[in-house]
Amino acid sequence: MALVLVALGVTIFYFSWTMPRLENRHVHPATIPGLVPILLSAALTLCGLLLLWRSTRIAAPGGWSGLGALLGTRAALRVGVILALAFLHTLVLVGWLPFWAAAMAFIFAFIVLFETWLAEEPPNFLSTIAWALGIAVVGGGGISFVFERIFLVRLP
Amino acid sequence: MFDGVFLLGQGIGHFMTPASLFNVAWATLLGIVIGILPGLTATMGVALLVTLTYKMAPDQAILTLMCVYLGAIYGGSRTAILLNIPGTPANAAAALDGHPLARQGRAGLAMGLATTSSSLGTLVGVFFLAIIAPFLAEAALKFGSYEFFWLALFGVLISGQMTGSDTPLKGYIAGILGLLVAMVGMETLHAHQRFTFGIPALGGGIDLIPAMVGAFGLAEILSAMKRNGVAHVAAVNDRVVPSFGEIFRYWRTILRSGLIGTFVGIIPGVGEDVGSWTSYAAAKRASKNPEEFGKGSQEGLIAAETGDNAVVSAAMIPTLTLALPGSAAAAVLIAAMYIHGIRPGPMIMVENPTFLYQVVAMLLLATIANLVFGLSLTKLFIQVLQVPRQRLMAVVYVLCVVGSFAITQRMFDVYVMLVFGVVGFLLREMKYPMAPLVLGIVLGDLLDINLRRGLLLTNGDPSPFFTRPISAVICMVIVVTILMSIPAVSRRVRSVVSGQRRRVQT
What we know:
- The complex is a heterodimer of chains A (about 160) and B (about 500).
- Chain A has about 160 residues and is mainly alpha-helical.
- Chain A folds into 2 domains: about 1-70; about 70-150, no CATH class.
- Chain A has helices at about 1-15, 35-55, 65-70, 75-95, 100-115, 125-150.
- In chain A, helix 4 packs antiparallel against helix 5.
- In chain B, strand 1 and strand 2 form a beta hairpin.
- Chain B has one domain (about 1-485).
């Protein structure tokens, strides 16, 4: 992570340093738009370097090792499924289907997947489908109705 | 003095309408339910509710959000007591003694003590809010760009130091990342677009609400659903309403924890969990029975719950008078206030003097609602605890999408929510705190504009940043804060202090 932060800090520093200094508008050099980003990116680089120095001395809790350990587990699968569903819903279904239908499809798929494929106990398919359908209709339809009709908020 | 009492009376009277009381009731109940459900935090609840209050009158909208905030911080104690899982991070200390009490068959007593001490904690914070805020707002009128620059920097740094779990460095990094996010878009001094890379949607910058909904909504969903698990709820067989004596014998603990919570709340961006842990530690040090802490100490539970709820009220002091959020949820409240045309900051007592006392009234009403619901709806809350997570989180995600879209009605904000959700989750997994990140986004513009405006006023001379009295004091506090976060320096200071103490004792 420290290396990523150092790289990010250096990149932002470069973009800040090369940002227009608006000399043609007689802007004072101490008030140029890039001033604060320059200082912040320098601070980020310094913190990244300190983190790097620290991680060579003591094994840091968390960090990429912690994240790497997570990637090989069932927890990663669960997170991956949520992200896949979320991206599918937001980037594909919303806009292609009416919002209420996209919301219902997301809720239904989410519950069914987590109560069958990703469940630890033996699944009860009939009960799961019934609950998922009920919550999808009430949740997806309810949210659309409450926001659009009662609170007059336009939905995507 | 009497003006204040008059304005407070006016503030309370203002909300004595059926519509306001109805809003207090449903919002507090919703807040408690949000707090009870593990994985849903107060910040997330407030961020999602901003959308729902969009069309409300400003006073009703802030009333609703305040009730959700207070309700959620309190509601988390239920989960801590009955499941040994803090409903919100602020209730982690309450689980240490609340759950052992529940296992001893005294779950009802634990919930009653938590409810009462939460309410008393809020009242202590509210008292200081009403007393301190008008004076601070008046004092802040003398602040210039130099002081506001240091205050913004201090907020991000102190938040980073107090919330960085294994090292303050990670807190500082989160804060700097937040400040850098705030640099995206049109800067206001010279109207120049920074880091937009030709993307028109970035011209207006990254909005706080979608970023918060991502960092506290989607990231929470991912964290909560990461693990599979079935909740085992402790049985409640005893009475919930505590006797006067059971509360009164811990009056010292309540007062101490309320004062600590108030102090923590006034410090920008530190938040309820620090208030709760600090109060708990102080109560343990001062207790006649410290060995009981962690094994079902009523005193420990009371200290933790008084401390975190006092933070909620006290967090409104810097939020209203300096526009520096006292906690992550207060940052969302600032965004909500701007959406509804309320401008927090030093001018609040000049432009809108009744609003501060209306906030006091809102907190008082929310406290009463918390107390009533908390002591009477035990069975309902236990049922809420048993809702399977996946059935809830699916609906919460849909709310995250609506919440980030509805304010400006741009799909771009939904994509911002997704990005912040994924990045927020990864940062959490690597033990980076979220509060400094959020505070950085809120305070970035304040820091940027005041540094450059200050330099513009002095034609590039930075000396007023160090020579004006208040600036010099805040600057020194910042230097000490950074130095004390270096382990070698803090070890040396501690050894010198303990050496001096030994010398004085001998």
